[in-house]
Amino acid sequence: MNVHWHRRDLRAADNHGLAAAADPGPVLPVFVFDKDVLQHGSSVRVAYMLDALSSLAEWYREHGSNLLVTRGDPREVLPALAEAINAEHVLWNKDYSGLARERDAEVRQALAEQDVRRGSYHDAICHEPGSITTNDGDPYSVFTYFGRKWQDREKEGPYDAPDADELVDPTALSIPDRWSTTLPSLDDLGFDEPDATLQPASTEAARERLESFCAEDIYRYDDRRDYPADGCTSRLSADLKWGTIGIREVHAATVEAAKSADTDAERESVEEFQSQLAWREFYTHVLFFSPEVVTENYREYENPIEWREEPDHLSAWKAGETGYPIVDAGMRQLLDEGYIHNRIRMIVASFLTKDLMLDWREGYDWFREQLADHDTANDNGGWQWAASTGTDSQPYFRIFNPMTQGERYDPDAEYIKRYVPELADIEPEQIHSWHELSVTQRQRLAPDYPAPIVDHSERREAAIEMFEAARGE
Ligand code: FAD
């Protein structure tokens, strides 16, 4: 009998490690609520994960098995389980972040000490770190060439889910008491119910999102992906983060969509979407080869960047009370849904680092707490891009103007009004020129909505000076 240790792969289909564990099986599926991981958890993420686990357990029950769970340290509980049930092989899928790699090496060692075979599989991305490199064999630090090679590389197809007869029913085994088939509640794990309303987390829900996206929105993705009111992006980020759907299944669906495209523009639109999947892999590779980016700037400056410390500004940004409507709409979408549209993530991150001149790590920490799709590699990559400290990042002197961004990408202020009800009855032109209105005008139009907390033009100059000082100019 084999054990498959689920981690960020909360699905049965298109799961490389699980497919390997079932061939030949039988396989017992397990999940460990790792105390070290929970320590860094948040209500939003743990709630999303529990929802995904509950649907995974349901899938196993429908197939005559069940998901066995426990709380503890995988370095201790997995070898003990393997010994108790006389498991031949413990398998899992690789996690490419630094801390997870350290932990996995220790689990591997603990199993080896008990003579249990162990194996880890490449699963979360199409192309493993180290498989796409420069011609000299180095990891890429800019996306363009990486992206081209990624597109050209042949991709594996999805793995089948195990059959019922390849699975073990844990009730038929003598399992140590600490393991159970009952999932803990959020409260049991020490978390409150999140305020945000999260999208359903399951393979079924992920497949519905993928299917409906590939039927229509993928063909206008290239044109409309930057317009947050349209909602034409896939919303698959949390599924890919928690593995409720496999990347091979997602990619295969896009290949089919490309075949059904009617025009070159539609085919290019599918490619544009595939290119976002490649960005995700690019950042995973960056994190793998430079694990220090979690806390350190990727790009070196001559001198330290003198970020400001302004707790009031940070609080206003977190609450969506900056007086910049597009920024506030984004920050409130985050609080409402545990999600923000990509263009708006870029705008709010630019605002924090360039207009408020606050350290990108403050923003990253807040996103880590509030995003259901928080992914160390993508979140870090996005923040360092916006802060001009990352790989291939936004040049420090090209600073988003939050008002013109709002005007361009949300011209009718539909997205803004959805999340900032104080502005619901105001004309879009007034919303997009909020910073230019007089105090009296603002008071008359939306007395409950704040005035801008900083002057963008002044801060733009100050931010450029801050970066020039860091560059030693
Ligand atoms: P789609 O546009 O439908 O894209 C499909 C998938 O491609 C996404 O689900 C995601 O897996 C991947 N993807 C898309 N854009 C990017 C990108 N720029 N970088 C890496 N992968 C991408 N993405 C996360 O998954 N988790 C994060 O924690 C995260 N934090 C971010 C923080 C900042 C400051 C910024 C600027 C971007 C961040 N992103 C993050 C990237 C991007 O914003 C989200 O992946 C995207 O908005 C998710 O919505 P979607 O699934 O509808 O995207």
UniProtKB/TrEMBL annotation:
Entry GO MF terms: deoxyribodipyrimidine photo-lyase activity; DNA binding; FAD binding
Q: Does the keyword Lipid biosynthesis apply?
A: no
- Alphabetized PANTHER family for the sequence: CRYPTOCHROME, CRYPTOCHROME CIRCADIAN CLOCK 5 ISOFORM X1
Cofactor(s) recorded in Swiss-Prot or TrEMBL: FAD; (6R)-5,10-methylene-5,6,7,8-tetrahydrofolate
Q: Which GO terms describe its biological process?
A: nucleobase-containing compound metabolic process; response to stress
Amino-acid positions noted as binding FAD in the UniProt annotation, renumbered to this chain: 221, 233-237, 273, 276-283, 373-375
Which residues are annotated as site, described as Electron transfer via tryptophanyl radical?
A: W307, W360, W383
Q: Taxonomic classification, please?
A: Archaea, Methanobacteriati, Methanobacteriota, Stenosarchaea group, Halobacteria
The scientific name of the source species is: Natranaeroarchaeum aerophilus
Record text on cofactor binding: Binds 1 FAD per subunit.
Q: Keyword set for this entry?
A: Chromophore, FAD, Flavoprotein
Name assigned to this protein = DNA photolyase family protein
Q: Which family does it belong to?
A: Belongs to the DNA photolyase family.
In this protein, which residues make up the domain named Photolyase/cryptochrome alpha/beta?
A: 1-126
